[in-house]
């Protein structure tokens, strides 16, 4: 059975993606009570431990030993460009160190997982001029893992721009069977030719990171580049009645319009006269000390965020057939942008719903990684174990 443990579980969107591909969650952990409530409503509370991961690190024996995969979508607060860039020295993103401590203890008891999957923002690659990602990979290497890094954007799967970095660490003995391993002794190794085959999965920035750290144990998964979805905003919007109070009044709507640049105002004026409905999204941002409303008009939503302030909430604009309207996106629309099924239980409080989805992973991205990386790796491991057991009993 494909068994995994979910660290920094949030509301369980990693589980949502893995479960659809046959994985079974044996244990999950998060520190947020609100997220636990949503998690429990959708998956039950039997596997969920509500606690600080540093406390978990003091008692790692509570994590089941028969776990093949650890997943960790650790906090991005200190790695994001929207944060203070404290990196792994920060209080929140630094909780990754607790997970690494748990892995070290599991290694001592010979119960470490075969694969570890870390997820975070692309700022993880540049935090502290690359030192944070280097130290993370170096620590994973010391724990007996070979590492690949893959960059995936949710926009390939849903109408949301959400670039993320996935660090995939595979036990060395298994890695040689499922990955292309970089040969440190051969400078003419063909490993690099395969690296260049998927620039969408591994950018020039990532290539430079690997090239400048040749002493680390790197491996590559030979996986396809995902085909981009044709879904757009009009595919995920809820049918909100025209007289709903969710739609903004004329004064508030005009204020938003006045915050836009002349170019974005021109787009609104143009779209008003179209026969069908145009949908765009707006974020408020500070530009040169002034609050600006920035319109995205390509049918793709900007990256969802947690609602720590009014500017972090994404605004939906609809224009066409002679008029235009604006409102905040709904939590259910947030969920759809994360690829979440409509019968996934959501909190009644909108802000809790925004937090649940804004601080989560895109489900189809996890499904993609499971289909092309995690599940095939498990199947190779399972076959190896079965062959070994047959030889022992022969």
TrEMBL record:
Belongs to the class I-like SAM-binding methyltransferase superfamily. C5-methyltransferase family. It is an enzyme of class 2 (transferase). Its EC number is 2.1.1.37. NCBIfam families: dcm. Keywords: Methyltransferase, Restriction system, S-adenosyl-L-methionine, Transferase. It comes from Thiothrix caldifontis. GO terms for biological process: DNA restriction-modification system; methylation. It comes from the Bacteria. This is DNA (cytosine-5-)-methyltransferase. It catalyses: a 2'-deoxycytidine in DNA + S-adenosyl-L-methionine = a 5-methyl-2'-deoxycytidine in DNA + S-adenosyl-L-homocysteine + H(+).
